[in-house]
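Researcher: I'd like a candidate sequence for this fold, 684 residues long. If you have to choose between options at a position, lean toward the conservative one.
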């Protein structure tokens, strides 16, 4: 028997409505909470839907329609119940229960409709796919089958229904490409792909959907669906497999299993296909990768929204104007972000008018692009343009409540800037630095009010990466910290509180890995070997490609900072210095630059790819244990959250500590696990 003691049951409520001369059964999914707690399906919810379908069918209406509570259709299986599945048999039982209930809509002799009024994800979209027809509201926030991203597969019919509805290219996009790139379908896209049959505006969505359904039942409207081309099926999946292998190198079991199910959908009966889904899903649910993925999902969905150790929000000061020191690319990205999210005046300064003008022009160009993409209307765009200005005179910061600097990583330069600005701004102005590795405490040391200096470390590109490391210096006070977190929340960033320690979290760990990589290169390991060494982990980028993205000079600078702080663990690399001095790109056309390969060739003790990878993992485990012992963050969960949101570490690893635990690296290197047994892995 499946048990989920904490399930918030989504009830399926039946009412009968008159549409013209027809009686329709309308089933509304509603868990009794507002949109902040979405509908989902656990055992109780599936049982309620089963009973509702029976009640609706027994009344013999003209049609049966399924919809959701305001803003939410259904976001799928209640994944909080997965840890309660103690055996594979229970996982199979849950899969079969969902299949049996949903199939009643597909096999109904009474026409069935899904009125997708809001977010429909995973099992929520799958139950809609079982209905004979679908409408979607233009206000539906997101549609998709994101299961692969959390180590699972669409397990309630999606892998079989979708490709036979819209074709395998579209299905591969929804089931594989979108989850792995963290994308969802918007309502218009869903209609264009054929996932939904009709789009209606939110204001009168239900009324229009009921009228449309009645017209379909009457034969006044015929839903046209193009025939699915099965000739290209194998070719599409072969290409998809190549892309997966190139990107993930076989490290994500759920992706390969989803491909197998898509292949099966071409010729298998629906019953055989869904039976295979159940078996695959049960295997994945009982695997460590899915447990790690669900752990990562919980971090991103819950812990990221409730940062640990933050002072009371009532201490936060109101921010009515933002100043930005610098007008380069990072500063200009920040200006656009602050203007869009805070809707307050933002002013950039730099050493000459040409730089200031270039920074403001960048912001204007980006706003114009948003208008062209229809992500902003012209009225909102005009307002944003009016909020952003520039000056060479820092006196424009006199009435700013929040000033952030984004200049070159030089401690003396930053100290000089703050000394100058402190004489201009009010005593309550927050002074934030976007430094990636320098000490906040040292930066504030010579100021009259060091308590209002805080680290505010963004990740590039600013608009894309959600992490914000907020660093508390030794003198940073609670009001400053509370203001920083309040601003981070308004910016829609996931903020993590970090102690003032060299390079903070993400850069410190990535630099430790880079240090191990270059020690291997210095020992004579060829660049292509070290570049492929981490492939079995399925990381978002290979080491040399990451070096190209960060920039060898930046990597060398951060490495120097950490070498000075921890010379026993962060070695200096002559080969990295050679690359910086030569000014050569390390990658050319997505391949390692042969000139760079020649430049660093040599060394008497080359390592194998396996040896490079294990040394890197050992170094990660050692550094994380030291960081936790130093109190750089509150818990290992914060390390994982930072690596997921700031470095793109994948869900199937759970960030990094679950992988180090289950591979035995944590205990071998540090003597103990990072997480309790059963967290992000199967119980022992």
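Model: Candidate sequence:
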């Amino acid at each position: 028997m499946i048990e989920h003691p904490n399930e918030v049951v989504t009830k399926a409520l039946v009412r009968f409505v008159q549409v013209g001369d027809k009686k329709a059964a309308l089933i509304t999914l509603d868990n009794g909470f507002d949109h902040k707690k979405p509908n989902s399906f656990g055992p109780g919810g599936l049982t309620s839907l089963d009973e509702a379908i029976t009640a609706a069918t027994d009344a013999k209406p003209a049609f049966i329609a399924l919809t959701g509570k305001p803003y939410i259709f259904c976001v799928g299986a209640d994944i909080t119940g997965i840890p309660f599945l103690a055996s594979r048999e229970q996982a199979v039982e849950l899969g079969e229960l969902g299949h049996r209930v949903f199939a009643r809509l597909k096999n109904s002799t009474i026409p069935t409709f899904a009125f997708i009024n809001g977010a429909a994800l995973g099992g929520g979209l799958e139950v809609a796919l079982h209905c004979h027809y679908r409408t979607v509201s233009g206000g539906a926030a997101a549609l998709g089958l994101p299961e692969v991203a959390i180590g699972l597969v669409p397990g309630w019919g999606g892998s079989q229904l979708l490709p036979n509805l819209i074709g395998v290219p579209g299905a591969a996009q929804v089931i594989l490409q979108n989850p792995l790139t963290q994308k969802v379908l918007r309502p218009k896209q869903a209609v264009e792909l054929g996932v939904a049959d009709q789009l209606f505006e939110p204001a009168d969505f239900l009324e229009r959907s009921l009228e449309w359904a009645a017209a379909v039942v009457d034969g006044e409207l015929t839903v046209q669906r193009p025939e699915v081309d099965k000739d290209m099926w194998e070719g599409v999946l072969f290409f998809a497999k190549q892309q997966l292998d190139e990107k993930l190198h076989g490290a994500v079991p759920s992706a390969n299993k989803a491909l197998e199910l898509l292949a099966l959908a071409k010729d298998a009966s629906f019953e055989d296909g869904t039976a295979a889904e159940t078996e695959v899903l049960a295997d994945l649910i009982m695997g460590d990768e899915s447990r790690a993925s669900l752990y990562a999902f919980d971090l991103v969905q819950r812990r990221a929204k409730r940062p640990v150790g933050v002072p009371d929000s009532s201490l936060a000061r109101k921010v009515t104007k933002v100043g930005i020191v610098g007008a380069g690319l990072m500063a200009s990205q920040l200006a656009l972000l602050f203007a869009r999210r805070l809707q307050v005046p933002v002013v950039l300064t730099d050493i000459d008018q040409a730089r200031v003008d270039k920074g403001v022009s960048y912001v204007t160009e980006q706003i114009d692009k948003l208008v062209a993409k229809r992500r902003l209307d012209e009225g909102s765009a005009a307002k944003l343009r009016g909020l952003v200005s520039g000056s060479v005179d820092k006196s424009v910061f006199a009435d700013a409540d929040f000033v952030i600097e984004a200049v070159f990583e030089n401690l003396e330069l930053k100290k000089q800037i703050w000394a100058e600005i402190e004489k201009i701004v009010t005593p309550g102005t927050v002074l934030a630095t976007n430094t990636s590795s320098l000490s906040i405490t040292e930066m504030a040391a010579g100021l009259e009010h060091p308590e209002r200096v805080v680290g505010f470390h963004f990740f590039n590109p600013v608009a894309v990466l959600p992490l914000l490391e907020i660093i508390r210096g030794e003198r940073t006070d609670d009001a400053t910290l509370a203001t920083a977190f309040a601003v981070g929340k308004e910016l829609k960033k996931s903020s993590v509180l970090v102690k003032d320690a060299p390079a903070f979290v993400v850069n410190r760990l990535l630099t430790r890995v880079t240090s191990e990589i270059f020690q291997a290169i210095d020992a004579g390991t060829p660049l292509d070997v070290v570049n492929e060494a981490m492939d079995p982990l399925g990381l978002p980028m290979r080491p040399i490609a990451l070096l190209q993205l960060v920039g060898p000079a930046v990597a060398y600078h951060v490495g120097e900072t950490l070498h000075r702080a921890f010379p026993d663990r962060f070695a200096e690399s002559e080969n990295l210095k050679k690359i910086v001095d030569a000014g050569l790109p390390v990658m050319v056309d997505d391949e390692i630059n042969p000139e760079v390969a020649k430049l660093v060739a040599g060394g008497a003790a080359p390592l194998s790819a396996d040896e490079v990878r294990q040394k890197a993992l050992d170094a990660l485990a050692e550094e994380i244990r030291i960081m936790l012992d130093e109190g750089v963050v509150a818990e290992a969960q914060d390390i994982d959250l930072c690596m997921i949101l700031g470095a793109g570490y994948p869900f199937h690893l759970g960030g990094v500590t679950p992988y180090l635990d289950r591979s035995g690296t944590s205990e071998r290197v540090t003597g103990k696990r990072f997480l309790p047994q059963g967290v992000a892995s199967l119980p022992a």
